[in-house]
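Chapter review. Work through the record for Peptidase C51 domain-containing protein before attempting the end-of-chapter questions.
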Amino acid sequence: MVKPWLTATGRRNRAAVRHSERTDIMQATTPRTLLSITAGAAIVCSTLAAAPSPASANELNEPTAKIAMASAGSKVVSIAKGQVGYKESGNNCTKYSSQCVSWCALFATWVWNKAGIKIPRYAFTGDLYNWGKSKGRSHWVKGKPLGKVNAGDLVLYGSGPSSPSTSTHVDIVVGVYKDHLKVIGGNVSNKVTMRNVPRKNIYAWVDAR
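Structure tokens for Peptidase C51 domain-containing protein:
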């Protein structure tokens, strides 16, 4: 389950501790189920299992593919691809955080930081939407077409940003196609993976540019 990592001190740190205690209780009472990435499946950051749909060798050259040309998006894709295959050590312990916590959002913000995008190192995926909203970068798409998402952008799964049970996972887009996205995500079967996912179960995306 997601435990928020906030960079601010004092009040925010105390809030993060309270959330961590609440999440530990949820982990103790909830089975650790590995979920496939299919059109109807829920996606949970700390329990996500990779169910990749391999791309064809020529997929990235298809006319329907849209690869971002903007500098920020290109940097994000390059950095994210360099992390594919990285595995956590122990239980959620990674180089993306000094704490051993669920890390899909920590991976995404680490990549964005490396690409020069100044975003706080959030652990809760809903905070990515709220940050983007404050910067004019978030795009709400629940129940609507996905819109002009591009490589380098972040896609958020679930029903909304209010809690870890409603905002469940984040991926970095590396390719956009008519019926699916190619994405890279952290904490998928305990590692960084690149895979194809349906253009569904996404409530919002956050613009890298």
